[in-house]
Each structure stands twice: as structure tokens, then as C-alpha cells.
């Protein structure tokens, strides 16, 4: 039976066996006694396969809110409207913690040590993942490495442990996973946890904690004789990434299986994951009815990119778009000319042709597709256009993340060298033919756009500022829509980005008509408004003009608003009408749910700045 099929069975089993009221203490039910279960490989596999459901997957990760990706309706994070009363602790996730600890307390029933070790590694990995995600969201969190008896009220109502303590436990669990997991499984190796998957998880978690501590000024802690600091975690991140890199096992996909001559785009629409670039993947398959809906989401314009993202892409020669004369007034067609190839492999560009050979045009700049910049990453052929019909694999860990993690960790440590850049960022850029980074030049002249408080990263003051900014640019572009951007903003302490305007594409002024009745037409596909094909858009004021051969008419001020009246960038979620505020003293953490605080009678303290109305 395929791995993903087993996972589905376990999800169903979990839902049937667990309730929400006592998820930390209720004994998992099986038809067999706990004293006899877990005695064979089949039983260990049966139990641990359910843990794979803790991976978020594409329908969560790809639509993660941020400053460079918006939807028609802003999230509570973007709006600044989160509340302790409405926050959900995540009962189902805590139930999985119980399953994990329950397994680790009983896996010794299996006498085959080699078999037991493999599946113990799976359990340690997912306990680490569970707590890493809880720390990212809530900060300090109670740590449990045992199943709580139903009468153990002291454990149920214990206070929060420090994030340093918890993250040290995360690292220890991942070290156990690295030791216990195999290099590869006999079958379905790409879809099962391996030593390198655990190393990748360690690199990801350690990079997060190291940079969070650095930019948020978290005081060092001494735990069991170990000084827990930003540099401690950054070094762990670099070491874990290097342990993967030095194997020379992985490389970036440069194939042309689908005849697109666009390897970056092609990698994300392969039905089966590429084993050279992918360290761990989630399998989706129509035959077993395991599918996702990202193509439907993007094809139906449910999410779109902001101008800030577009401005992150360099020119094809490695220069900055901001150095181009009049870059701020470039039209849609002009924006895509001579840019980093990943831009047109991620966003719908003029001349875009889908996998069915059909030319598509940009004709919608309102409704869901508010900015005009449409995502095509993860968009395959039209057999996947329907809701929940996509079957492309989803990479959980891929090699470019490892390379960029190594570069960023060493840059933040102050130990990055030009040789390190050549081994990491330059390899990522090489896939699409982008020039290498000159580390010395970058540090001597940090990109003004990426430095500016309105458009960039205000908190970088390091001597490596220039190259840190370039690594962040690369991470933003390369890992876009893979679930990283929100928590990158959090760890870099750049939440004020959410207060900045969300802008779409630029339209020049209305040059035709007169008085209150003015208009202009725009061909978004090839930029030639006078050719014989239909012109995509007509924007007008006053009375709708009698212009033929137009796909869409938009009345200015009603359909959308531009920054400079009758010209400028599309304004999305106008901050004048939809005020947004990011509280620097509060919003980097979610609030502890009021219900959970009440249940513990205040043993769970509230995160700073959140008022839940409780007097303890």
C-alpha cells in the first residue's frame, strides 16, 4: 500500500478515536492491548504514518498571508484584528502530540531494535515539528514529553516553558531523528522521512530561532550548561545545512521534461517529485483520491502578487530594476522585459502560454485578482483547473532552501565568505542564468530599495548588511508560495511591512476623451493596442466610452482606484478605508486562547499586549 494511502487511513482513525475535551489525557483506543500492540513493524508503521498529517501541505502553505501576496479578503493578521477570544489553540494538533508521546512510551514492545529505531526517528521528528510550530506562533509554551495521566492536574495546568528550553528540546529530538532514521527507505523514499529530511528540519528550525533571537533581542539562557543564544542556533543551522551539502547528493532540477525551456516553472508542476532537488515530498495522486487545490486557487485569481514582490526581481543582467529610468511608471508589459527569468516563470507574463498551448491574457484587475499580477507557479494543464483536482507533488524540503539557509546563517554569524556564496546563492541563480553575487560590492553598496523603511528591511544593521539583503531577495523569489514569507517577516522583525500599501500594476494617464469623460485602452498581452486582436482593458471616467473590441471595461474610482487619481498603481485594500496597524509590542506572537487560560486558572500567562479580560 502506498504511504499516502496509509496516512489517510490514520487520519480517519485519529478522528474516530479522539475527542477534543481531553486530548492530552485520553488513552488512544485500539482493538489490541497497549501491552501487545507496537510489537511488529506493521504496527509501528501503522501508528506513525498518521504523524505525516502534521505537514501543512499546499492548500495552507501556498496561500500564506504576507506583504507580497494578498487575497480579496485580508486575514486577521494583515488587518491586525486577532483576538484571544477567537484564537484556536489547535486541539487536533495537541492530540497528535499525545499520539507521538504514547508511541514513544510503548515502542519498546518491538523486539527488533533496527525496525524500532526507524519509526522512533519518525516520532522524534514530528514531536520536534510540533513544538517548533508552536514556538513560532506562541513563543513560550508548556513542554510535554510524556502522556499525561487523567488525574495529573499539576501537569495539565503547568506554566509555559521558555522558548529557549523548548527549542533546545526540538534540537535534541531532531538529533535523535537524524540518528534513528535511515538514509533511505526501501520504497517510497522520496515520501518518507530520512536522515537528510531531519537535517533539513533542523536547519530550518535553527535558522528561525537564531534570527528571531538576534532581531528581537532575546536574552541568552543557560540550560544544562549550554548557553542558548542567537549564535548557538545560527551555528546549528549552518552545520545542519552543511551536513547535507557536503554529501554532493542533491542538485537543482534543470530538466526540460515538459518542453517549457523553463526549469524553475517546470519543477513545480511535475507529477512526481524530482529526486535530485527534493529531499522530502508529499505525494498527491488521483488514483487514490489524494489531491490539492492550488491550481484552482491561482487560476481563479484567488491570490495575487503585490508590486513589492515584482520590485524584488532583478534585471536579467543582475542590475536593479530601480536603476532603470522611470521604473516606477513601467506598465505591465514593460515590467517583464529583461528580468530574472523566475519572474515570468512565477507570474503570468505577456505572451504566456499554458500547458495546453492556449495563449492567456491579463484582463482582470479587480475582484479576486486585485493587483493584476497573477501566479502561475504550481499551475499545470487544464485537467487540474477544478477545485481540489491538482495531483502535482508538494516539496516539503528542497535543496535550494538548504543552500540559502547555509548562506543566511553564515552571513548573520559574520563568517560568510565569497566561497560560501559560490556554493549556495550562485548555484540557485545559475539554474535560471542569473549572474553571481559580488559579496564585497553588495556590502559596500546595499540596495537602497531593500534598505528603505517603506519598501525594504529596516532592521538590518550588520556589517554584512548588503549581502544579507541579497540573500533575503533570493529567498523571497526562490521560495515564494512555499510557506516561508510570513514567518520570515516575523523572525526578521519586519511586521511593519503589513502597514504599507498593497499596490498592484501601474497604469499611465487617460489620454483620450475630454472633460469628465476620459478613457484609455491597454493591451496587457503584448502591449500593442492598435493590432487586430481584442484589446484587454479600457479604463474610463464618467460615461462608458463606445470603444469596440475591448475585453473588460473598468470605471475609475468605482472598479478600482489608482494612486495618483487618473494614473498610478492600483490600490488594493486602501489603508484610508481599511486601516491596518501592526503593534510591535504585541503582534509577533499570536494570543494564548482565552479558553485555555481559563482552564489553567492563569497558569498559562498571556503574551504581551494581548488583553483577554482575565484578571490572572
List the helices and strands and how they pair.
Layout lengths: L2 H15 L23 H8 L9 H4 L7 E3 L4 H4 L11 H16 L6 H26 L14 H4 L6 H18 L14 H22 L4 E3 L2 E3 L1 H16 L17 H5 L10 E5 L11 H6 L3 E3 L1 H6 L19 H4 L5 H4 L28 E2 L19 E5 H15 L4 H6 L1 H6 L8 H6 L3 H4 L13 H14 L6 H7 L10 E6 L4 E3 L2 E6 L12 E6 L9 E6 L5 E2 L5 E5 L21 H6 L17
Parallel strand pairs: 11-12
Antiparallel strand pairs: 1-5, 2-3, 4-7, 5-6, 8-14, 9-10, 10-11, 13-14
The percentage helix is 25-40%
Please give the order of strands in the largest beta sheet: 9-10-11-12
**Number of β-strand runs:** 14
Distance between the termini: 52 Å
Radius of gyration: 26 Å
Strand content: 5-15%
| Mean pLDDT value | 90
Q: How would you sum up the major sheet?
A: 4 strands, mixed
Number of helices: 23
Shape: globular
Amino acid at each position: 500500500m502506498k504511504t499516502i494511502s496509509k496516512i489517510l487511513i490514520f487520519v480517519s482513525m485519529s478522528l474516530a478515536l479522539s475527542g477534543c475535551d481531553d486530548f492530552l489525557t485520553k488513552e488512544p483506543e485500539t482493538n489490541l492491548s497497549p501491552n501487545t500492540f507496537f510489537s511488529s513493524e506493521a504496527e509501528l508503521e501503522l501508528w506513525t504514518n498518521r504523524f505525516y498529517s502534521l505537514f501543512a501541505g499546499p492548500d495552507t502553505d501556498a496561500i500564506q498571508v504576507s506583504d507580497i501576496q494578498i487575497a480579496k479578503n485580508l486575514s486577521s493578521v494583515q488587518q491586525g484584528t486577532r483576538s484571544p477570544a477567537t484564537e484556536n489553540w489547535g486541539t487536533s494538533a495537541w492530540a497528535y502530540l499525545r499520539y507521538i508521546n504514547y508511541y514513544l512510551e510503548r515502542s519498546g514492545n518491538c523486539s527488533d531494535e533496527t525496525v524500532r529505531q526507524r519509526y522512533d526517528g519518525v516520532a522524534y521528528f514530528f514531536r520536534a515539528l510540533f513544538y517548533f510550530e508552536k514556538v513560532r506562533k506562541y513563543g513560550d509554551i508548556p513542554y510535554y514529553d510524556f502522556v499525561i495521566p487523567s488525574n495529573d492536574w499539576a501537569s495539565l495546568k503547568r506554566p509555559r516553558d521558555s522558548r529557549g528550553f523548548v527549542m533546545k528540546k526540538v534540537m535534541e529530538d531532531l538529533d535523535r531523528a537524524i540518528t534513528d532514521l535511515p538514509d533511505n527507505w526501501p520504497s517510497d523514499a522520496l515520501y518518507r522521512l530520512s536522515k537528510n529530511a531531519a537535517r533539513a528540519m533542523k536547519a530550518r528550525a535553527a535558522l528561525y530561532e537564531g534570527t528571531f533571537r538576534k532581531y528581537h533581542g532575546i536574552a541568552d539562557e543557560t540550560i544544562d550548561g549550554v548557553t542558548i543564544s542567537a549564535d548557538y542556533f545560527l551555528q546549528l543551522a549552518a552545520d545542519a545545512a552543511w551536513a547535507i551539502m557536503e554529501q554532493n547528493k542533491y542538485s537543482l532540477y534543470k530538466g526540460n521534461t515538459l518542453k517549457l525551456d523553463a526549469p524553475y516553472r517546470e519543477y513545480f508542476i511535475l507529477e512526481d517529485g524530482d529526486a535530485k532537488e527534493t529531499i522530502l515530498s508529499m505525494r498527491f495522486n488521483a488514483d487514490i483520491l489524494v489531491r490539492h487545490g492550488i491550481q484552482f486557487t491561482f487560476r481563479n485569481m484567488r491570490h495575487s502578487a503585490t508590486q513589492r514582490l515584482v520590485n524584488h526581481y532583478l534585471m536579467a543582467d543582475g542590475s536593479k530594476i530601480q536603476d532603470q529610468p522611470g521604473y516606477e511608471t513601467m506598465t505591465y508589459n514593460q515590467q517583464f522585459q529583461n528580468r530574472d527569468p523566475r519572474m515570468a516563470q512565477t507570474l503570468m507574463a505577456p505572451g504566456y502560454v499554458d500547458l495546453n498551448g492556449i495563449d492567456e491574457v491579463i484582463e482582470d484587475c479587480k475582484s479576486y485578482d486585485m493587483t493584476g499580477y497573477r501566479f502561475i507557479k504550481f499551475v499545470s494543464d487544464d485537467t487540474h483547473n477544478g477545485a481540489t483536482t491538482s495531483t502535482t507533488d508538494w516539496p516539503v524540503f528542497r535543496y535550494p532552501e538548504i543552500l540559502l539557509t547555509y548562506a543566511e546563517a553564515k552571513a548573520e554569524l559574520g563568517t560568510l565568505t565569497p566561497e560560501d556564496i559560490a556554493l549556495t546563492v550562485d548555484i540557485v541563480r545559475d539554474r535560471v542564468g542569473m549572474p553571481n553575487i559580488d559579496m564585497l560590492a553588495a556590502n559596500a553598496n546595499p540596495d537602497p530599495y531593500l534598505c528603505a523603511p517603506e519598501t525594504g528591511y529596516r532592521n538590518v544593521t550588520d556589517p554584512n548588511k548588503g549581502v544579507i539583503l541579497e540573500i533575503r531577495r533570493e529567498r523571497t523569489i526562490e521560495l515564494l508560495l512555499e510557506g516561508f514569507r510570513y514567518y520570515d517577516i516575523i523572525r526578521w522583525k519586519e511586521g511593519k511591512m503589513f502597514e504599507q500599501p498593497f499596490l498592484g500594476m501601474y497604469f499611465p494617464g487617460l489620454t483620450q476623451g475630454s472633460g469628465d469623460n476620459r478613457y484609455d485602452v491597454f493591451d496587457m498581452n503584448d502591449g500593442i493596442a492598435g493590432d487586430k486582436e481584442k484589446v484587454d482593458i479600457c479604463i474610463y471616467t464618467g460615461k462608458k466610452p463606445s470603444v469596440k473590441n475591448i475585453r473588460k471595461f473598468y470605471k475609475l474610482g468605482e472598479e478600482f482606484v489608482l494612486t495618483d487619481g487618473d494614473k498610478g498603481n492600483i490600490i488594493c485594500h486602501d489603508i484610508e478605508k481599511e486601516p491596518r496597524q501592526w503593534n510591535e509590542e504585541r503582534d509577533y506572537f499570536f494570543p494564548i486562547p482565552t479558553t485555555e487560560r481559563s482552564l489553567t486558572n492563569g497558569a498559562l500567562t498571556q503574551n504581551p499586549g494581548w488583553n483577554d479580560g482575565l484578571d490572572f
